[in-house]
Amino acid sequence: MIGCRLALVVAAAGLGLACAEDRAARLPDFEQGARPNVLVVLVDVLRRDHLGIYGYPLPTSPNIDAFAAESHRFDNAYSHSTWTKPSVATLFTSVYVDRHGLGRVGFDGEAGFRTDVLPLELETLAERFQAAGYRTGGFGANVHIGRKTGFGQGFEIFYQKRLDSAPRLNRLFLQWLDDGTSSAPFFTYMHYMDAHWPYTRKLPDETGRFGSTRFERKPPETWTAVPAWVEKHLDAVALAALTARYDQEIAWVDAAFGQLLAALAEREALEETVVVFVADHGEGLNEHGELQHGFAPYPEVTEIPLLIRLPASYGSKPAVSEAVVGLVDLMPTLLALVGLKAPAYTQGRNLVPLLLGEGAREQPVYLDGAGVRAMRSATHTVFLGPEGKRECFDRQRDPMELRPLAEEPAACKRLATALEEWVRGLDNLAAGAEEGATVALDEEEVEALRTLGYLN
Fold first, then answer.
1. CB atoms < 10 A from the CB of 203, how many?
2. Is the pLDDT of residue 445 over 70?
3. Pair 388, 323: CB distance under 8 Å
4. How far apart are CA 79 and CA 310, in angstroms?
5. What DSSP letter does each residue of 223-274 carry, written as one string?
6. Gap between the Cα atoms of 251 and 194, Å rounded
């Protein structure tokens, strides 16, 4: 089973791990009733350690925290990449970047600026739900996640307009929901952009509750100009101002999420809906000398919140899980929750046993970013960089992975062996694959990438 391949690799390396799919989970009898709705709300660039439920002391997330109290909370959930397009592609397809191929922001080709497209042969979550009779809607504000780049596959409506606010996306979704004449359940993907760099769009409502947001020298909005600003002007005061701005935007998103849940409750739809709250990746705040994201897969850019709230019909109680899981696991999990099967090639695992309190075996996650590949377990992380350079971190003593171990314990060596074998398999897969499809971006789309800081 391809979905269990990572477990088999690490088990062969002596880690004693196995698939989570080795037992049947108790599910409602869908033949006796309608399948539930499924709503995935993804907040772009959201660090989990800036939410109250994950220990943050400032009031950034009262609505998310209240939702978590009714949900299954994962305390060790990870993105497999450090930026949006490959992360969401993995969420949609349950395969890693080496399989789906969306690893580039873009490149200058003979016909202008081009970018990778999600392969048509990979079925998406939306396609699976649509084939099962679901209404499917996508509403987002990130230029990477659009029809042109292949993410609209399977959606009857797929709205994407750069930097649209979360409240507006909520209104569009609810209008679509209210206008529908079908009694079929819905699958909806929401992609909020409000917490993204340059952290300036929500400041008119700033109250100072997260600290001063003032700078002596304002940081540039263009991503490529940030390193020079960091070197010359980033001090403790400037970093505190950046962090306060970031927190303010998280609070804005939190309010919008609360409004969305309230609107579903008013429509008596919330109790018939599986709701997932998640992020595509985190954000660097100079822990490793970097701002924003897109660099090596350190915790600040790969640790993400993951909350799953089930309808009462599942008989599942709110819980907290320490299991190590990733975005790659969402597709098989969400399909299984409504009695559907995932494609045979998926590389994630079904987390339904965890959600229903049946337990699951331990399994590390595979990560990559900026030419660095990594494997992270509950206790250690191994990084494999260019030219085979290797580092291992003890996550229990060094959770932010700031100090590589001078001498590797046996746990590091076993994890490194698993990572090296896994990477060899991915390299063989990539070597045998044809070059993926690309598409030209128009001037407005290129400008959108500049606005987000991806281009000069």
1. 13
2. no
3. no
4. 22
5. GGGHHHHHHHH--HHHHHHHHHHHHHHHHHHHHHHHHHHHHHHHTT-GGGEE
6. 10
